[in-house]
Amino acid sequence: MRRLFKNLYRHEDFYPSWLIGIWINPTFIIRRGLLVGVKDISSQFLGGKLLDIGCGSKPYENLFTVDEYIGIDVEVSGHNHTSSKVDKFYDGTHIPYDDNEFDWVFSSEVFEHVFNLDELLEDINRTLTLGGKLAFTCPFVLNEHEQPYDYARYTSFALHDLMKRHGFVVESLKQSTSYFETVMQVLAIYVYQHCLPRNTYVKLLLTPLFVSPFNIIGCLLGKVLPSGRNFYHNNIVIAVKT
């Protein structure tokens, strides 16, 4: 029963539903926004060979219809690899695959943890075929996490510049949440992390009462209030190697 619940909780972390996730996932708004963004990416990445950078447990693998899905990660990071599905570990300097080997590169919530992002982007460019696409998500507004391996936050303007400098053209760049949704999600995270007791099970019981209302209000009013797209949680980017 305990394992079943852990599996359910983990699924609702990446695929939060209105029936369950809204009541147990304190980052419901963030995760819903990411899920929509990754679904949009996966609908365009069809066939061919894909590299998932910072893959962890490959939570979004089943969304992609590709011929081969390969994941790499670093051995030492802000999370353990108990549930990871890493095909090869990455030494932080050289992606262990050949030039022009991949049609697609995907990375979700990883770039903020990469101190030498310029070098990584150069290596991503090397492994992609000409005309291949890099898609990634990374936060703009988010509390520090996976400490001490949390190094940066990126504006949309910074990402446009990074892509241009490393041989990519941005095909699309979207913000995952509106201003009001972002504010309410920040409040939900604050209450969950700093106001509720530290005991995991007590937190779980209190989340529907003290955390979920912020996410619910954020989702509902965020659809009707002015979007204010200059304050948001995540960048959803698709770029083409030129």
Please give the share of residues in helix: 25-40%
Spatial extent as radius of gyration: 18 Å
Q: What is the succession of H and E elements?
A: HHHEEEEHEHEHHHE
CATH superfamily: Vaccinia Virus protein VP39
As an assembly, this protein is: single chain
- Provide the low-confidence segments as ranges: none
Beta percentage is: 15-25%
Number of strands: 7
How many H/I helices?
8
What separation lies between the terminal Cα atoms? 51 Å
Structure description:
With 242 residues, the chain is α/β, with parallel strands linked by helices. Helix 4 (117-127) links the parallel strand 4 and strand 5. The radius of gyration is 18 Å and the shape is globular. The chain has a 7-stranded mixed beta sheet with strand order 3-2-1-4-5-7-6. It has 8 helices and 7 strands. It has helices at 2-14, 21-24, 28-42, 117-127, 156-165, 179-195, 200-210, 212-222, and strands spanning 49-53, 68-73, 88-89, 102-108, 128-139, 168-175, 234-241. It has a single domain, classed as Rossmann fold, CATH 3.40.50.150.
Please describe the structure with a list of short key phrases separated by commas or semicolons.
242 residues, alpha/beta, Rossmann fold, 7-stranded mixed sheet, 8 helices
What's the short version?
By secondary structure, the protein is an alpha/beta fold.
Task: Chart the SSEs and their pairings.
Layout: H1 2-14, H2 21-24, H3 28-42, E1 49-53, E2 68-73, E3 88-89, E4 102-108, H4 117-127, E5 128-139, H5 156-165, E6 168-175, H6 179-195, H7 200-210, H8 212-222, E7 234-241
Helix pairs in contact: 6-8
